[in-house]
Fold this sequence. Notes:
The structure holds two protein chains of two kinds. By secondary structure, chain A is an all-alpha fold. Chain A has a domain at 61-229: MetI-like fold (Orthogonal Bundle), CATH 1.10.3720.10. Chain A is built from 15 helices and no strands. In chain A, helix 4 (63-94) packs parallel to helix 8 (135-159) and helix 11 (189-205) crosses helix 15. The model of chain A has no long low-confidence stretch (mean pLDDT 90). By secondary structure, chain B is mostly helical. Chain B has a single domain, classed as Orthogonal Bundle (MetI-like fold), CATH 1.10.3720.10. Chain B contains 13 helices and two strands. Chain B has helices at 2-37, 53-60, 62-93, 98-112, 115-125, 132-139, 154-182, 186-194, 199-210, 212-227, 231-236, 248-256, 262-291; strands at 39-40, 48-49. A two-stranded antiparallel ribbon of chain B has the order 1-2.
Amino acid sequence: MRRGYLVGAVCLAICTVMVMPLVVSVLASLKPTAEAAAAPPTYVPHGLSFESYERLWDYQAGLPTYLLNSLGTALLTIVVTLLLTVPAGYALARFPIPGKEVIFVVLLLALIVPYQALLTPMFLMFARIGLTNSLLGLAIVHAAIQLPFSLYILRNSFAAVPRELEEAANMDGASSWQSLVRVFLPSTVPAIVTVALFAFITSWNEFLGALVMMSRSDKFTLPLILAAARTETSLGGTDWGMLQAGITISIVPCIFVYLLLQRYYVSGLMSGAVK
Amino acid sequence: MYRSRRRRLVGLAYLAPALIFVLVFTGYPLGQMVWMSLHNWSLISPPRWVGLGNYKRALADHQFWVSFVFTLKYTVLITPILIVGGYLLALLTAANAPLRRFTRTVVFIPVVIGLGVSSLLWYWLFSPTSGVINRVLLDLGVISQPVLWLGVDDDVSNAAIIASVVWKVIGFGMILFVGAIQAIPSEVIEASLVDGAGRRQRVTRVILPLTRRTILLVTLVSVIGSLLAFDQFYIMTAGQPENQTATSVFYVYLNSFPYLKLGYGAALSLVLAVTILIFTVVQLLLTRRSEA
């Protein structure tokens, strides 16, 4: 019994430590301008205001631009990843392809070479074909990062669909495309959700690729503009309140999506680590 | 016969987009990187063949070694904390009681936010006069003057950044360890209870050995991630003081972009890629064996 209390206390202490930085940051984003700039800082805001969010809204090209850049890139990443890996996963799981093993290894190339090392040649190529400072260009980088994981998950998921279902569809004279749409996609929804979820989180959070590919500040994603704002001086120092507002806006979608799709998140992580 | 050949072609057609994508956006840059690493190239002047000159230059480059050693130091310090800490958290939260599950969910939250954003958050927490950490330490009387955590002393900066990254990623290992612990058949645990094993023995004799593979796996993932560290240093110290906290990826970035030494940057990238490759191959061999 006493041990139960001890475990409870330890759990609560750990939760407090983990949550505190986030809580402090969200609270700081709600401080009025003068209080947000105070040194030393106050723990709990003495007054609540959205002034920091208002400043962020109008910061440089404006928050809507940066939000749209981040969101647009993330959605394009999901689309590109799924368009490539759904058919490829289907083919690898269900079609007799010569040299399949070799092809699979080639497709997992990005797993072996860290993308951080490839960014310079990618940048040069993208500069030639006009894909720098482009949401699609950045989405291609992010899709390349996500491709091995996504393909692995989808191939396994397509392979697990019972053969009888496919045969029944073939009896009815369905083409391979029809059986993909009617039989395979409905039975692999969890895998597709997992792939889309990870593509979103990767793209929304990714920093170095965006730093390399985006040089025009109106093409910055949220993490980039916030990193730029950290050294920006207003009233003689970093605008901490505005920075906290930006941090809050960046993390809310991630936490929301995680709490909503926790099951997919954890299962994806497990299969991802056990490549 | 006709049908199976047709099916092969259809399969290839489904595969083609992904295959072309990987060849164009991963394979080609990889080849280009090797080619670049053998040239001197600064965008302003045309590339000039230098053979292995860039690699020789790296060996004699003081900053290359500073970055390499610093990255190793960061990796060697943070990995045990992540593994031991993550495992202890997993032992605490593996049982499916409500409070333990809740703790698991909470510890995992920072994993889903971006490393760049979490670094900005900690950049503020660690800031000398506006940061909450110095405020707390001053109020508790632990320190009498604000500590300059970031960008002044390389070891202090490293410690502060490690603290922030541990907060950010410790839940990753924990979740994988929880999965491994929960996968141990309950008969095995019960048998150890029948044999009169105490709590400690159950952990050291049963749970630890049976989750050995996951421990190794998480260690490799953590080591690879740490060797590729960039965001947290770029944002929290910008490499200061005097590039002493510029990691290997940071140094590649500096050479390729601000300095525009493209060939040299490519050679450094390749050295980095080969280092990582060794760890990745071990990781893949490990997971391969588990499937068999």
